[in-house]
Amino acid sequence: MLLDITTPALLFPAITLLLLAYTNRFLAIAMLIRNLHKQHLNDKDHTIIIHQIKNLRSRLNMIRYMQAFGILSFFLVVLCMFLLFREFPVIASYTFGGSLIALLISLGISLVETQISTRALNMELSDMEEN
Question: Which top-rank group of organisms is this from (predicted)?
Fold first, then answer.
């Protein structure tokens, strides 16, 4: 495959938007954790809160890995462009492939985190339906 500098440049806006979405997820979870902390201090029944804490901790770790692989993908794309600029096309091709793999891993983790988030919301809805 012939790789020129415009090919990795196509990933710049996609990765940037993806990292912005991950940051928004992180900020939303941070807000949830702060609200949960206030609720924990005020409520006597901590059963549902304990489940939420485990869920949020898991999601927080997943978002950290999503961001890490997204940043790795971005780093590898920039490195690929530098290698193409310095006329190392073979190494640049492998670097671009690594960038795509890192992006796929990040997206896969994002999919799993979304499913966990959906289950947590369903748990909240079930709790409200019971009351």
Answer: Bacteria
